[in-house]
């Protein structure tokens, strides 16, 4: 991470008042992988591609803070996501689609205003063995979290081993404060080798239909290993989750999401192991039982995913990695894959952090 000081004018410079100093950090990750995938289209052909990283999407950003005295400071963060193979901007072409906020921090916590991660994403980013994987094949449970939210005000604070978070996203649509809005709360407690957490949130669309998500998770460290387990529940009357998970090549017949909201029960467990000074190994299994897939009453489905990841550190900033993943869908969830109801992916990549 590159840090440099910049002058932050407090006003009245012409009158000779002092100029405060703030710290700004330039940071980022460039992560590329070569990935082989079976059954990659409706004809069940295999695919080889150069693509973004297995676990960490490439990004760069600026973050900074200024000490205001009396334990207070101001802060900001601007973060961009991009694909190194093409130079294309992610998050639908947003300049700072990952984060864009300003805030104040003090003894009672931090208040932030702008585009931020949802509380669901914040919690499971800390309690998932892959820290929320980047390949869709591995990260599909977290589409239920919504990922990020615009026009948000958030609070987070840490009190001993207890961490709390709450966010509200303004829908900004005239006539109804609930249209397009978001709210979420989370809590986590860490004591010694044990950590546990829980979250609940709601996302409303322009018609004020609601996608609800809740979950609990835990981790336990023993020696060089960490054991993880968690549960995500969901009830989606907006069609958002089905819309993001369905393969774009599929012709899908939708029912009524308002009358038949999608319901998810996702469980996972996994283990990370620092096998040697430079080698880290991760394994995780996710399973989802789904009802009312695509808004069709009684249409059920299941999805099972297994992932193995090996990472080798060449230095503090550069890692090589290899990963294998297997996905299987059945029943109504078949629309989430283009051809056969299973895919196997194998990838190798390099990641540099700056």
Automatic annotation (TrEMBL):
<keyword id="KW-0732">Signal</keyword>
<dbReference type="GO" id="GO:0009279">
    <property type="term" value="C:cell outer membrane"/>
</dbReference>
<keyword id="KW-0813">Transport</keyword>
<feature type="domain" description="Porin">
    <location>
        <begin position="11"/>
        <end position="331"/>
    </location>
</feature>
<keyword id="KW-0998">Cell outer membrane</keyword>
<comment type="subunit">
    <text>Homotrimer.</text>
</comment>
<dbReference type="GO" id="GO:0015288">
    <property type="term" value="F:porin activity"/>
</dbReference>
<keyword id="KW-0812">Transmembrane</keyword>
<dbReference type="InterPro" id="IPR023614">
    <property type="entry name" value="Porin_dom_sf"/>
</dbReference>
<dbReference type="InterPro" id="IPR033900">
    <property type="entry name" value="Gram_neg_porin_domain"/>
</dbReference>
<dbReference type="InterPro" id="IPR050298">
    <property type="entry name" value="Gram-neg_bact_OMP"/>
</dbReference>
<keyword id="KW-0406">Ion transport</keyword>
<protein>
    <submittedName>
        <fullName>Membrane protein</fullName>
    </submittedName>
</protein>
<feature type="signal peptide">
    <location>
        <begin position="1"/>
        <end position="20"/>
    </location>
</feature>
<keyword id="KW-0614">Plasmid</keyword>
<dbReference type="GO" id="GO:0006811">
    <property type="term" value="P:monoatomic ion transport"/>
</dbReference>
<dbReference type="GO" id="GO:0046930">
    <property type="term" value="C:pore complex"/>
</dbReference>
<keyword id="KW-0472">Membrane</keyword>
<dbReference type="Pfam" id="PF13609">
    <property type="entry name" value="Porin_4"/>
</dbReference>
<keyword id="KW-1134">Transmembrane beta strand</keyword>
<keyword id="KW-0626">Porin</keyword>
């Amino acid at each position: 991470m590159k840090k440099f000081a910049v002058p932050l004018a407090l006003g009245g410079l012409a009158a000779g008042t002092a100029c405060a100093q703030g710290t700004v950090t330039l940071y980022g990750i460039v992560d590329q992988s070569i990935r082989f995938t079976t059954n990659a289209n409706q004809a069940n052909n295999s695919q080889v591609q150069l693509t973004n990283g297995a676990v960490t999407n490439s990004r760069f950003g600026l973050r900074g803070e200024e000490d205001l005295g009396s334990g207070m400071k101001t802060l900001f963060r601007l973060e961009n996501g991009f694909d190194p193979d093409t130079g294309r901007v992610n998050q639908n072409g947003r300049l700072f689609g990952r984060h864009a906020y300003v805030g104040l921090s003090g003894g009672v916590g931090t208040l932030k205003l702008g585009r931020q991660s949802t509380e669901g994403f914040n919690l499971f980013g800390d309690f998932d063995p892959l820290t929320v994987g980047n390949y869709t094949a591995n990260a599909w449970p977290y589409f239920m979290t919504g990922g990020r939210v615009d026009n948000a005000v958030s609070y987070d604070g840490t009190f001993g081993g207890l961490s709390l978070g709450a966010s509200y996203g303004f829908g900004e649509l005239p006539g109804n404060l609930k249209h397009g809005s978001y709210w979420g709360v989370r809590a986590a407690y860490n004591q010694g080798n044990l950590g546990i957490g829980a979250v609940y949130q709601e996302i409303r669309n322009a018609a004020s239909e609601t996608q609800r998500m809740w979950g609990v998770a835990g981790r336990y460290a023993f020696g060089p290993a960490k054991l993880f387990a968690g549960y995500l529940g969901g009830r989606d009357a907006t069609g958002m989750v089905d819309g993001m998970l369905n393969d774009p090549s599929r012709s899908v017949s939708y029912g009524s999401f308002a009358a038949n909201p999608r319901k998810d029960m996702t469980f996972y467990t996994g283990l990370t192991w620092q096998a040697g000074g430079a080698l880290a190994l991760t394994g995780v299994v996710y399973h989802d039982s789904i009802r009312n897939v695509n808004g069709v009453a009684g249409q059920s489905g299941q999805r099972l995913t297994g992932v193995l990841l090996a990472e080798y550190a060449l230095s503090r900033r550069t890692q090589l990695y290899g990963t294998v993943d297997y996905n299987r869908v059945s029943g109504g969830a078949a629309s989430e894959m283009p051809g056969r109801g299973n895919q196997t992916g194998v990838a190798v990549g390099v990641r540099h952090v700056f």
